[in-house]
Amino acid sequence: MTAFDYDLFVIGGGSGGVRAARVAAGETGAKVGLAEESRYGGTCVIRGCVPKKLMVFASTYPVLASEGADYGWEMSAGAFDWGKFQARLNGELDRLEGIYRTLLSNAGVETFDQRAIVVDPHTVELADGSRKTAKHILVATGGWPMVPDLPGRELAITSNEIFHLPELPKSILIVGGGYIACEFACILNGLGVEVTQYYRGAQILRGFDDEARGLVSEAMIQKGIDIHLGTNVLEMKEADGGGIWVKATNGDEKVFDQVMYATGRAPNTTGLGLEELGIELARGGAVPVDAYSQTSVPSVYAIGDVTNRVNLTPVAIREGMAFVETVFKGNPTPVDHDLIPSAIFTQPEMGTVGLSEEAARAQEDIEVYATSFKPMQTSFIGRTDRVLMKLVVSKATRRVLGCHIVAPAAGEMIQLAGIAIKMGATKEDFDATVAVHPTMSEEIVTMRHPVR
Ligand code: NDP
Q1: Would you please indicate which residues are annotated as catalytic (active-site) residues?
Q2: Which helix (H) or strand (E) holds 217?
């Protein structure tokens, strides 16, 4: 008999929190409570990966229609009905939220649709003032978009609001050069919005392989996105006659219908009570944890974006599973954050796993195998789109240290390449694999000579 109300109380009903709660309750019989102040499913389902990917799909049809026409079909894209798409999108998100709720209740998790904060190592307080005690508390509160301090910042929207716009803007300025900025620049451009993107650095997608991000940037510019590098916003004001007037560091003064900031996300720890417990938050407000997701207060754990380790849904889910394995199944399991494949859903997509050429070269002697070419499907109709297949190989061990693909469906490809690379495949293992012909990805096993 436990002296606590619960064996586990989870704060946050996103990907990580829901997984941990339902596995702990469903597979170990633990008594679990969970509080969520917004909608179940969290960032990924409600205002991130899922609606984003559906918008990616929506945005690709005009290009498909024009390609289809060049293949001989009588077709054209026509106009886009944002309201119709939005209604379907909202229906889908409601359906998914319903599934999350059902998964929790079927596992026997007691849910509270309100905010919870931590008041002592074994107690949380709900917004209605009631308190619940628990042997373990799991903080899985995720992150939130950050807009830097500048005059007029209240005029900007973030990725949270983009899905709810009553109508699509004619023009938009996107600020930032990371995942979210680049994905939405491509999505909105595909939907027919005039897109300008300001990025303060020398090239978008900092941290990714230089050659790969260079190709994505080139393709984005070619598709009509007006990218300004080394540029930031100084000031924003409501323009006379509507829109937002923006003054930039490059001297430009322009009016946009909307301005969207995608300048990073901060962990949701404000007012959560963790510092009062003696947990010293890291830079930006992240909760510091060890390899088992345990904080400096032994009964309090944290997983997902709130810990700012690798901010991706599948990683949060793994951290949740490892937490249950460690705490409720008596099998201490650290989370392996090495060689995580991921994709950026720009157009074309970038799929990446392991080290960039630059990071690998800083570490050891390497060989680089790369090929960039016009894929069959679009070169046939005279398009100039290029794709990139690239392997970064250790000279000493022959292991593939990094794989970078820029191509339609690169996200699908990198998932599979990621298995081989996670298993420690060498360049010779790739060479020993027979090509699937004719595909784009066959090039990944047919590159004979290093380019560098
Ligand atoms: P990122 O950290 O990827 O990018 C933030 C961007 O904003 C960078 O280009 C950064 O510039 C710039 N920036 C930061 N501060 C300022 C400032 N004060 N003024 C101007 N520019 C600024 O964050 P995102 O918001 O794009 O994404 C958050 C996280 O969400 C990602 O790290 C990722 O883990 C996850 N995500 C994953 C996706 C996927 O897997 N497909 C999709 C979307 C999000 P600089 O480079 O100079 O620092």
Answers
A1: 437
A2: helix 210-222
Cα(164)–Cα(378) distance, integer angstroms: 34
CA of 175 to the centre of ligand 1 (A): 10
| CATH no. for 6-144+266-327 | 3.50.50.60
For ligand 1, atom 39: residue with the closest CA: 344
Query: How far is the C-alpha of 444 from the C-alpha of 427, rounded, in Å?
Result: 10
Q: Which of 263, 405, 412 to mutate to test the pocket of ligand 1 (most atoms within 8 A of CB)?
A: 263
What confidence tens digit (pLDDT) does each residue in 342-363 have?
999 999 999 999 999 999 999 9
Task: Say if residue 1's pLDDT is above 60.
Answer: no
Q: Which atom of ligand 1 is nearest to the CA of 180?
A: 26
Tell me which of 43, 162, 179, 228 to substitute to probe ligand 1's pocket, judged by most ligand atoms within 8 Å of the beta carbon.
179
What's CA 33's distance to the chain center, in Å? 27
Which segments of the chain belong to CATH 3.50.50.60? Answer: 6-144+266-327, 153-262
Give distance in angstroms: CA of 206 to centre of ligand 1.
Answer: 9
What would the two tokens of residue 337 be?
């954050």
Neighbours of 181 (CB within 10 A): 25
CA atoms within 13 A on the CB side of 299: 18
Query: Residues of CATH 3.30.390.30 domain(s) within the chain?
Result: 342-445
CATH number for the region 153-262 comes to 3.50.50.60
- How far apart, in whole angstroms, are the C-alpha atoms of residue 281 and residue 290? 13
Question: Ligand 1 mean position to 176 CA, how many Å?
Answer: 7
Residue nearest to atom 47 of ligand 1 (CA): 201
The encoded tokens of residue 35 equal 């509080």
To the question of pTM greater than 0.85 for the whole model, the response is yes
For residue 146, the ligand 1 atom closest to its alpha carbon is 25
Q: What is the DSSP annotation of 354-379? A: E--HHHHHHHS-EEEEEEEE--HHHH
Classify domain 342-445 by CATH number: 3.30.390.30
